[in-house]
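Researcher: We're teaching a course module on how sequence relates to structure. For the next exercise, students receive a sequence and then see the predicted structure as C-alpha cells, so they can try to spot secondary structure elements on their own. Here is the exercise chain.
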Amino acid sequence: MLLIQDIRADKEGVIARLAKRGKDFTDLIDQALTLDDKRKSTQLEMDDVLAESNKISKEIGQLFAQKKIDEANELKAKSPELKAKSSELGDELKAIENELLDVLYQIPNAPGEAVPAGKSEADNKVVLEHGEKPNLTQNLPHWELCEKYNLIDFELGVKITGAGFPVYRGKGARLQRALINWFLDKGRDAGFEEIQPPLFVNEASGIGTGQLPDKEGQMYHMQVDNLYAIPTGEVPITNIYRDVILKEDDFPIKNCGHSPCFRREAGSYGKDVRGLNRLHQFDKVEIVQLVHPSNSYELLEDMSSYVQSLLKELGLQYRVLLLCGGDTGFASAMTYDMEVWSAAQERWLEVSSVSNFETFQANRLKLRFKNSDGKNEYAHTLNGSALALPRIMASILENYQTPEGIIVPEVLRPYCGFDVID
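Model: And here is the predicted structure for the students to work with:
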C-alpha cells in the first residue's frame, strides 16, 4: 500500500499519478489523511495520559519513601482513572488505525512517471516488436495439435477436476518439463537463487503482496485452515522477506522458482479461454528481486531484457507493451507485458508481466533495509514471469508445426530428448 508519509508529502502529485488509472481517488486520499490526523492526535493524547500516569507513580513512590502515607494514598486514587482513560484511548487508537488501514487497502499503487494514462488495454503502448510471423504450410490451433499428437487431454482434465485443469501426456508432459528445467537453469545462470516455495499461503502473505483483499474472488480459499492456493510464485517467494530488515549491501536479492499456480478466473469465457489460453491450474517460473529504491527502474529494464532473451532463444516472435494506468495491476507502479504471436489463432498471447511495485509491497510486508545513515527505509520489489508455461507451449506448438510434425526449438532438445513431435 502507499506510504501515508508519501501521500502527505505530495498529495496532489499522488492524486495525479493515480488519475492515470482512469479514476479519481481524491476522496479516498482525503479520508486517509483525515484518519491519519485523527490517529496522531489520539496518540498524542494517550502519550500525555501515560506520561501523567508515570509521573504520579514516581511521586507516589517518593511520598511513601518520605512516610507521607496520606498524600501517597490520595495520589493513588487518581491512578485507576488514568489507567481507564489510557485503555479507552488505546482502544480508540486501534480502531482508527484499522479504519485507516482499510482505506489504504482500497487505494492502488500510483503509476510511475513513464506510465501512460488510459482506462483499458486499448490504451497500452507497444514499446517494441521482435521477429517475423512464421509462414506456415499447416495452420492448426494448439488444441487440435494436442489431440492429434496426444500431448494434452483437456476433456480428461474436465472428467478428473473440471474445465481449466488439463492433463499433460507423453511428449506433451516432457516438453512442459523441459521448459521448466530450461527456465530454471537460465535463471540460475543469470544469478537468481532457486526457491521451491509452498503452494499454499496464509492470509498475511496474500495481504503482503497485494492479492488480498483486492483479489480474494480470484483465489482458491481453503476455509477450514484459512489458507489460499497461490495464484503465482511471487506470493510465497516475496513473503520470505516479510518483517525482515536487510543491509544496504544485500541488494539486489534475486530469487526464482517454479510452481503450479491456481486462479479461479471468475467470469472468463469464450474463444480467449480455449485450450491453453486461460487455465485454472498452470505452471510458471517466477523471478523476484528486492532492490535499492535508487535503481529499481533500471533493474526493471534489465528484467524485461532478460525475459526477452528467453523468447529470442526460443525463436518466438514477440512484442513488449508498456501498460497504461488502467490496465496496470493494483499493486504495480509500472508493468511491461510480453506477448508472443500465435500463428494459428492469429493473435497475441501474453506470456509474461514484469513489474516494479516500488514500496507498495514492502510497506505491507514491513520489508526494510538500513540505509547509509543507519535509518530503516523501505525496499523496492520487482517480479516477473520467466516464463508462464501454457501460452509458451501453445505458441511453440503452433509456430513450429509442419505437416510432418512439430519441430522442437533447438535449446530445448537436450532437455526433451527428442527433436520432433510426430
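Model: If you want an answer key for the exercise: The longest strand covers residues 281-291. The mean pLDDT is 94.
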